[in-house]
Amino acid sequence: MLANERSKSAIALNESQYYFNRELSWLEFNYRVLHEALDERTPLLERLKFTAIFSSNLDEFLMIRMSGLRKQVMAGVSKLTPDGKTPQQQLDDLEQRLKPMVREQHQNFEQNLRPQLEEIGVSLLNYDELDREQRVYCQNYFETQVFPLLTPLGVDAGHPFPHISNLSFNVAVIVKNSQTDVVRFVRLKVPETLPRFIEIPAMEQNSASGDRSIWNSIPLEAIIAHNLPTIFPGLEIQAYSFFRITRNADFPVRESEADDLLIAIQQEIEKRHFKGFAIRLEISASAPELIRQTLKERLNLAPEAIYEIEGLINLGDLMALMALPFPE
Questions:
Q1: Which residues contact residue 286 at a Cβ distance below 8 angstroms, ignoring those fewer than 6 apart?
Q2: How far does CA 220 lie from the centroid of its chain?
Q3: What single DSSP character describes residue 93?
Q4: In whole angstroms, what is the distance from residue 186 CA to residue 56 CA?
Q5: Which secondary structure element, helix H or strand E, spans residue 183, and what is its range?
Q6: Which of 289, 277, 303 is CA-nearest to residue 71?
Q7: For residues 113 and 48, is the Cβ–Cβ distance under 8 A?
Q8: How crowded is the C-beta side of 40, counted as CA atoms within 13 Å?
Q9: Strands 278-284, 236-247: parallel, antiparallel or unpaired by DSSP?
Q10: Of 290, 295, 294, whose CA–CA distance to 278 is shortest?
Q11: Are residues 54 and 33 in contact, defined by beta-carbon separation less than 8 angstroms?
């Protein structure tokens, strides 16, 4: 009789109610990282660091986990996970949870962390906030350090849409030739060899008044955007926007087939940059519809793969601020 009762009360381990989804669980783990950035009890630079870690974690998750699910959907896989979800259902649940988290991250940075940085003398400035001396400095920096590294890639009948490497940060520009009325889409890659945040002199009024200014900077892409007329002389700049692409990077290394494992790994790393379908487009929320639609079509993106970003794109670069002299 006791054995009978035990068998009746035994848990059926094949029932989905007893399992958590692996991908959704990971996403909740990463939200705990973001929570440290939201928590006002966490020291300011630590909050910035957790913001950056959240972003870099998310890049890897999208490149491997979400792209893996996307490949299963493309292959017509309908197998259920232990928690009873198909690949498509997992993708739908992830996207529904993910976008509010990303929105919360950016709102926290723009509305809370950025103003608090300014209070301690750390400024991340926009170009229209610069004074005369700072503008001269940025102009010199552009001409000597940035301009020689830029390679505009236009799209027309003789030039196909350029391949945009994984995790690259770019400026999309719409230019018009006023003589021929020809309108072209042009892609500019923001140089990866330069710092994302360019340190600039303190504001003149701050220096005169003695206000504390520890570190002033401007995003590299803002300097490029201000100098678009220099990059495209004789052309009318109709619109521009910043964007970043995340691609599928789930390319397993087959050790048994590799003559040299090191070379095989190097080849797979190269694939991460130049191969694989686009899994996410991060684009400025203010991007004109022409740029948004061009990228959507050329990269073959579903609407849910487009993330409209208010403020700075790729907050993972905030890790550079960890070197600031604030041990407290």
A1: 241
A2: 15
A3: H
A4: 28
A5: strand 182-189
A6: 277
A7: yes
A8: 3
A9: antiparallel
A10: 295
A11: yes
| Contact in structure between 291 and 185 (CB atoms under 8 Å) | yes
DSSP 12-47: -TT-GGG---HHHHHHHHHHHHHHHHH-TTS-HHHH
Structure tokens at 218: 């401007």
**Assign residue 76 a region: left if phi > 0, alpha if psi is -120 to 50, beta otherwise?**
left
Measured between alpha carbons, how far is 128 from 226 in angstroms, rounded to an integer? 10
Strand partners, 156: 159
Q: How far is CA 177 from CA 162, 235, 294, in A?
A: 21, 5, 19
Tell me what pLDDT residue 324 has.
Answer: 84
Residue 228 carries which side chain, given as an amino acid letter?
A: L
The secondary structure of the chain in percent helix, strand, coil, rounded to multiples of 5, reads 50, 15, 30
Q: Is the dihedral of CA 121, 122, 128, 131 positive or negative?
A: positive
Number of residues in the chain? 328
* Contact (Cβ atoms closer than 8 angstroms) between residue 242 and residue 283: yes
User: How is residue 53 written in tokens?
Assistant: 């870690």
- The answer to whether the beta carbons of residues 120 and 326 sit under 8 Å apart is yes
Cα(9)–Cα(11) distance, integer angstroms: 6
Cβ neighbours of 321 (radius 10 Å): 21
Query: Whole-prediction pTM value?
Result: 0.86
Tokens standing for 102?
């990303």
Please write the tens of the pLDDT for every residue from 251-305. Answer: 554 444 445 555 545 555 554 444 578 999 999 999 999 999 999 999 999 899 9
pLDDT digits (tens, 9 = 90+) for 178-220: 889 899 999 999 999 999 999 999 876 655 445 667 899 999 9
